[in-house]
Amino acid sequence: MRKRLWIVLFAAAVGINLIAWNSRAFCDLYITHVFPVLGTAYARLTAVFPFSVGEWMLAAAVLYVFFLAVFGALYLFARRSWTKKVFSALQRPLAWIFLLFFWIMTCNCFIQYHATEFEDKYMQARAEGYTAEELAALRDYVVENLNELAGQFVRDGRGYLIYEGDLHETAIAEMGRLGTVYGQLQGYYPQPKRIFFSDFLSQTNMMGYYFPFSMEANYNDTMYVVNLPSTACHELAHLKGFLQEDEANLIGYLACIDSPDPFFRYSGYMGVLNYVENEFIRSIDRSAEEYKKHPAISDQVRADNIFLTEEAWEKVEENAVVSTKTAKSASRAVTTAALKMNGVKEGMQSYEGVVKLLLAYYDGILF
Asked: Nearest CA to 41 among 187, 154, 179?
């Protein structure tokens, strides 16, 4: 009976995924009417805990697999009755754990990847694309705002930024404000949560994570403080069904740049600077002469445009269990595989798509 139930539930989950891959209308209907109820209820449940439930679920999964492998090997080679009992006890719930994980990921992640994208839902990008001059206007706008804001903040003796506001409450407030403009962003937001193993996350070059199996927005607490607001808003955007990374980048940007908190505005512009700057440099064929015709990025902005401070990197490397190169390569491979598995053909390059979305957003505003 239990086996038959498992097969029925597994087949149902597979069926839902097949429908999602082939019907955008189904995905949109789910995100509009079902996900806000299920997702919010689950997010409220995990929000009760002050720590990242998803992070410790991952840690528990690693330990579970480790002990399963150890006792499986002991049973295989030692053939002791107690090893068989332990291995059997560990193995017994495996199929149901997998089924639960598959269902949660289907409801909180897989379906969302195939819904109508932010650009199609709320903007109208030009079919013919945008010119190099329009890209330059966007780049100059971002740089000018950063240069203007850079001198407004409290800094320590080393010149590092100090943020004295409430990151969590401000991020929630800004996402709520954005929800009045873009309907899908309306509703409840849990507080973003710091990752306990932020040093290891730094080795993977990741600023944050959305855990679909716990409906939490998590951020890297080791990274330089300027990255925190835009990252928190980026991860909160995932909670509302915007799983595409370029969309979350845009939403994080929009949530920050209209904030009354200048630090949030600074973080918003900083969060897209490298994407816009790189596209701009490519558009002018790396011409130094052409580059000098545009506003220069100030020394202070360049100094703030970092992932981690030198001191933080030294601490990360000192306490590292695996090499940063290994962690970074493994993370990139896993992230790329996960994105492509969900139909994002660009893989990690999908993050860079925010430039196209920014051009569409500023069409009629900057040019």
From this structure: 187
